[in-house]
Amino acid sequence: MSSSGASPSPDASLASPTQEHAQVTELVVRTVIDPREEADKVRSNGPGLHRGVVGKPCYFSVDYSRAEGGKLGVSLVSPRQIVQRRAQLVRAPPESGYHYMFTPVCGGDHIVKVTYAGEHVPGSPFRVPVAKTSPTVQKNPMWIKAAANAAEVKCSGPGLTGGIVGRQATFTVDTRSAGDGELSIDVQYDKFVENLPKMKASFELNPADGSYFASYTTPEAGLYRINVMYGGQPVHGSPFLAKIEPR
């Protein structure tokens, strides 16, 4: 005997989802950029941020590759507004290895302002003392004339702890309280790598205060030893260990 009742239909709400159930709500997550934090990631270096001489180009670089969400601003204020245009910042030639340059036409303090996302980057504004003429230096200023005290040499700057491959790393060496001695600086990869010899760091006298501005550029990422010697002896803290990051 066949059943007189038909099988019940499945619940429509379970068999086929309604339009409301089928909709997918897209959640958009926006990252809030902190201008101050991003500006702190910018690095500025180069001799043009430390001193200059009238009539000679002052070079410096600004690395903002690790910052995001902001706009870089670089400006210059010279002691005399009347010569501001002649001392304005321009893009440096690529072969110089720097991003910016200016040629001061008068002595005195020049102010270089570097901002990112409207915030000053570390060190900015930079006070750049400009001398009217180059200091008188002996042809061989490194010649040892008296016993030197390497323990009195003071080294400081970001290049002593790190940098980026292919970009100039800088630091200062203050020998003013250490007597007369021979300064030498070399940079050595922390591990032996074939065909990668020691490199000599370049350094030059800062006419503003008599200290030395040193710089070096490494070909590969890794740990490097910065050996700073004065009067044949290592200075306090030498060798310094610098971590060079890839680009």
Outline the structure in words.
With 247 residues, the protein is mainly beta. It has 2 domains: 35-131, Immunoglobulins (Immunoglobulin-like), CATH 2.60.40.10; 150-245, Sandwich (Immunoglobulin-like). Helices cover 5% and strands 35% of the residues. It has helices spanning 12-15, 19-22, 35-39, and strands at 43-45, 52-53, 58-63, 72-77, 90-91, 100-102, 108-116, 119-120, 126-131, 154-156, 162-164, 169-174, 183-189, 199-200, 202-205, 212-216, 222-230, 233-234, 240-245. Strands 11, 13, 14, 17, 18 and 19 form a 6-stranded mixed β-sheet that branches. Strands 2, 4, 7, 8 and 9 form a 5-stranded mixed β-sheet that branches. Strands 1-3-6-5 form a 4-stranded antiparallel β-sheet, with no helix packed on it. The chain is globular.
Task: Produce the secondary structure layout.
Layout: H1 12-15, H2 19-22, H3 35-39, E1 43-45, E2 52-53, E3 58-63, E4 72-77, E5 90-91, E6 100-102, E7 108-116, E8 119-120, E9 126-131, E10 154-156, E11 162-164, E12 169-174, E13 183-189, E14 199-200, E15 202-205, E16 212-216, E17 222-230, E18 233-234, E19 240-245
Parallel strand pairs: 2-9, 11-19
Antiparallel strand pairs: 1-3, 3-6, 4-7, 5-6, 7-8, 7-9, 10-12, 12-16, 13-14, 13-17, 15-16, 17-18, 17-19
Quick one: how many beta strands?
A: 19
Distance between the termini: 85 Å
The chain-level mean pLDDT equals 76
Structural class: mainly beta
CATH architecture of the largest domain: Sandwich
Shape call: globular
Taken together, the total number of domains comes to 2
Largest β-sheet summary: 6 strands, mixed
- H/E element order: HHHEEEEEEEEEEEEEEEEEEE
Q: Helical percent range?
A: under 10%
From the 3D structure, determine the CATH topology of the largest domain: Immunoglobulin-like
Low confidence ranges:
7-22, 24-29, 82-86, 135-146
CATH superfamily of the largest domain: Immunoglobulins
Query: Number of helix segments?
Result: 3
Strand content: 25-35%
Q: Roughly how many Å is the radius of gyration?
A: 29 Å
CATH uppermost class of the largest domain: Mainly Beta
